[in-house]
Design a protein that fits this description.
This protein is mainly β and 256 residues long. Helices cover 11% and strands 43% of the residues.
Length: 256
């Protein structure tokens, strides 16, 4: 049966009202449930090279980075039952300003029968710089002398995650007035040329003899150095350092 003119008008009004309500409901749904893309939403949705990495994101995709390289590691006796372990790590991604926060590592000290004496674990930041020294002092080994030492990154806590670290995010720190390598104690002055305080700054010192063999290592932690301030940094050694011909001092600040 054909609708009357009033019936058709009522149906038209009902359809228009329904369409308006549908549009409003759609807009409300988009407003509530749709969020702008971010670097933490688990999606590749804003010109990223991977999920939440590359492009506008600070996180670097795993296929664009190389694993850090352990150049060498040593265990240096500091007393009849105590050692300092040291490793030099190369960051092959330093040219891309790549750094990694909270990286777990472990030193393993073995005796001359290759039996494990002790493991020493720690956490460090891998800075966007070529060489990162890692120094672990005061490792007690009991009556067993150390014959071998190994260093590994502990991936049981997850893979190393790399981020782009802008140069502007790191406080400009430098060392001056470094004393001669044979000095005991060895000293230098840490200077903060930045506009903000720097916190949790480690300075590592490694001594080499004329054959370029490591003979001593130490580190000092500065919990805070204010903008424009300077602070004396001192390194002590239990063994004689008269054979030292070179001292490498490296600033290792915590990543922001």
């Amino acid at each position: 049966m054909a609708l009357s003119w009033s019936g058709r008008r009522k149906l038209l009004y009902t359809g228009v009202a329904g369409a308006i309500l549908a549009v409003i409901a759609l807009w409300v749904g988009i407003s509530i449930f749709s969020k702008p893309p971010t670097c933490f939403d688990g999606k590749q949705n804003q010109g990223e090279q991977g999920i939440d990495c590359g492009g506008p994101c600070a996180r670097i995709c795993t296929f664009n980075v190389r694993a850090p390289v352990v150049l060498w590691t040593r265990a240096l006796p500091t007393s009849p039952h105590t050692y300092t372990a040291v490793a030099y790590i190369q960051n092959p991604n330093a040219g891309e300003r790549a750094g990694a926060r909270g990286v777990h590592y472990v030193f393993r000290l073995l005796d001359n029968s290759n039996t494990l004496i002790i493991e020493k674990s720690g956490v460090t930041d891998l800075l966007p710089q070529e060489i990162i020294p890692i120094v672990e002092p005061n490792i007690e080994t009991g009556d067993r002398p150390v014959a071998h030492v190994f260093f590994d990154f502990d991936t049981t806590f997850g893979d190393i995650v790399w981020d782009t670290i802008p140069q502007s995010s790191l406080q400009p720190l430098r060392l001056t007035d470094q004393s001669p390598a044979q000095s005991s104690p060895l000293s230098a002055t840490l200077v903060n040329d930045g506009t903000q305080p720097a916190r949790d700054v480690t300075v590592a010192a490694v001594l080499f003899d004329q054959t370029d063999t490591v003979i001593a290592a130490s580190k000092s932690l500065i919990t805070r150095i204010d903008s424009g301030a300077s602070q004396n940094v001192v390194f002590t050694w239990s063994a004689t350092t008269s054979a030292a011909v070179r001292a490498e001092l490296t600033i290792v600040p915590a990543l922001p």
